[in-house]
Structure formats: C-alpha cells, structure tokens
Amino acid sequence: MFVKTFKNNxxxxxxxxxxxxxxxxxxxxxxxxxxxATNFDTxxxxxxxxxxxxxxTLSTILAFVLIIFQGFLINSIFSSNQLSASTTFFPAFxxxxxxxxxxSLMTISPLLIINTFILIAIFFLFRSFDKLxxxxxxxxxxxxxxxxxxxxxxxxxxxxxxWLTLLNYRFYKWRYWIISLLGLLTPVIILIAYYFITDLLTxxxxxxxxNINFIPNLFVTIDPIDFVFYIAIGILSLxxxxxxxxxxxxxxxxxxxxxxxxxxxxxxxxxxxxYSIGKDYLIYFLAPSLSLLFYHFFMTxxxxxxxxxxxxxLFLLIITKLILSLY
Length: 327
Hints:
It is a single chain. By secondary structure, this protein is mainly alpha-helical. It has one domain (2-324). The protein has 14 helices and no strands. Helix 4 (56-80) packs antiparallel against helix 5, helix 5 packs antiparallel against helix 13 (283-299) and helix 11 (224-247) runs antiparallel to helix 14.
C-alpha cells in the first residue's frame, strides 16, 4: 500500500505526510523527553542545549519542525538531482520514519543538528559537480562539515566522505584540496580566535582534550528491540546497497557520480556511529543515506507487492520500537 501510494498518488502522499508524523510524535507532545546531552557535545550544540534545556516541550516542538524540514530538504535535493522522482515524497517519508522510532529522541539533540549541516553539505557537493570548477561549493560543503564537528566531535570523520567525494568527481587538482582544508579550518579558526580574545582558550582546550575519546566503546548492553531493529536495518541496508550499485550502469554519468556520493556517505557514516553504539541516536548518522538507498530498493522492484510487504514490516517494527520506548 505505502510504496504504491508514494509511486502513484500525489494527493494521498501529502495526507500521509501530514498525519503519520504527528501521530508518531503525539506521545512526545503529551510528555516531552529531556533534551539530549552527550560526552561529545562541542560549542555549537552546547549553546543550543543551554538555550532550550529550560523547556522540554519547546525542544520537542522545534525537533519535530526540524525533522520535517530535513525530510523535505532531502527530498528536494534528491529530486532536483534526478536521484528520485519529482512526484514522490518517499525519501522524506523514510527519513522521518527512521527518526521517529524512539520517544527519547523526540527532542533536540546534537545528531539532529549535525544532520542539517550534512544535508546542506550534500546539496553543495552535488552542485560542485554541475559547475565548471565548483570551488566555492567545495569550500562551503567542507565548512558545514566543520560546523558539524563543532556540534558533535565524531562528525570530523565526515571529512573522509568529502575527500572521497573529491576523488569520485576526479577533482585531483591541488586547488580543490587546499579549498577543502580552508573550508574545514575557517570555523575552527574563528572559534579559537573568539576563545583567545575572551581569555577562554586554555580552559576550552583543556576541557576538550580531557573529554575526547579516540577509541569508541563497543562493549555495551543493547535492548532486544534495538538489536532486532538494527539487524533489520543492516540486512535491508546491504540489500539496498547491492540493489543501487548493480543498477548504476544503466544510468548516465551524472546519476552514477551523485549516487556514489550517497553510497560513500553511508559507508563513512558507520565510522562516527561506532561512537554511539548502544545509544538511541545511532540511527541519525545513517538516516540521510538510507533515505535514498531504501527509496531505490523499494521503488525499483518489479512486483510492488514485495516492496509493500517489506516496507510494511519495517513500518511495524518502527512502531513497535516506538511503543516499547514509552515504557
């Protein structure tokens, strides 16, 4: 039902996108969870957290608005770059569902903020391929990855995604790599200069070095429903990855290059997610890339009945996980 609707019925898509997210978030609107703080929070998120921690309800409302905005943004990015049909909101729907699977996540979190920066970085990376040189776009995409790092420390690993994307686009000239480094360093230099002027540089540097963890803790306890959820996501991700890679040869160079950007993002997203194993917000790292991988997997099946069955099972698993998170 869902897959067929998002393939053929534009009006019903709007209805589903208007109703289902509100229903999923209704428990949070009634009883808002605490805003999320982690050991990896850096200055940008600390400012946001301090500004919103006084009101759980406001944090939940803003998080809901931001997730809806991100869903439509990612849908617009994919459709405008011919990675998805312009008549479907399925990538947005998948993204919103994945980030609505846990009651405790229905609030402001550093991962929600960095996803905004990563989506904007995707937008500019795609634009860089469409330009003659794309140097401005490369600088801007790196700048937003740097802002993600200044929100949540492990996000610095997305730098590897940027650099692999440059190789994917065959941007081999030294100018691209210098511009990339300048984009990464600009927000950091501005922050260091601010701390220096306000005599906080030593204190902030010491605090950062004391809290940083280079090795992720992989020995954690995972709830049974989370274990089932991520096993299901993992199996579906591998199937979707194989599906999109095996079909790339049938498309033009623009599609192949931009699809590679998302595939690389998915693979690199696994690295920072290792620092969140056992945490509810792990899915945030994977959601932007999974929205395209899952979209392609479900939409390209010759018999939609199989896509509908698999997607319905995923939808029921998300609802089950959400219900269990209430207790």
